[in-house]
Amino acid sequence: MIPRQVYRTAIKQHRVLGFAGRRLQSNKASPKELALQSHLPKIENPDTPDRDINPKRKLPKPAYESENFKVPEWKRAFGELFINVFRIDMDNVRAGTMGGSKYYYMCKDQGLQFKDEPLSETAIFWYQTLGLPRTFGQWFQITGLHVWLLFVRMRAMPFKVGKNYQQKLVDKFFKDIELRLSEEMNILSGQIRESYMKDFHSQLLGITFSYDEALASNSDSVLAAALWRNVFNGDKNIDNVKLEALVRYVRMQLYILNKISDRAFGFGDFEFVAPNETIEPLTPQEEEKLREATRQKYEPQNGKILPSNRSSLSLDE
Predict the structure, then answer these.
(1) What is residue 231's DSSP assignment?
(2) CA angle, residues 4, 228, 42, in degrees to nearest 5
């Protein structure tokens, strides 16, 4: 992917910038390394709501979500012809395939956990390094944070396109929640599921508002307060080192999202920076290299662009 190829020179370095281009830290610790410096013992918070409805089994991903899934060549050729003849708006189509599929699963997988199963590397950061409870409600908060991060970038896209990406992302989020409540949590009552869904919808609105406030204020303290209230559930015993680590983690994601073009982001060329990595700002030369790599990938010099790769999204913004 374009961002990873170019940012690889900046990853595992020592400076972290926020979304305003302001230098935040000067040490070499990644969010995970910083959180591990916490020396306070874990103290259970009796005020934390018990929302632990651990899944009994995990749902398999649809075949088209599998990394090994390949479309037969004849179907691919027919699809290109169909797109060309009917002049289908591929930016609208990609809102579903990227915003409502790839990007949602990226958000979902960050803190995904199943009972009696080993944790992924990213889930280890959330549940072991930061010491968050392994509950469904906590998974929702982690996923909601990453959904908001993508919201920030989607809002910077042309209004109609960005709104479509956001809508597809939210639709998939809540469809997945309802499915998990029914199939994994064995909540068969439609009334109870509806009650949960309303609660999660209210929480997502609150998450978005609080993080937007932090974004608008350009203040680390406001961002830390929002993360403390939502991700850490207002735990008064939280170690500030862990809170600082999460602030650093969010700043890294926002910096990378700020540097990727609309075209590359719209085509799914974005990955979250892992908690065990750090970043430093790109030089002007590296930024130009990123733009050039984007142009070469999406607008080749021979001018032959498949109908499915057509887009009105900017290569530079």
Answers:
(1) T
(2) 95
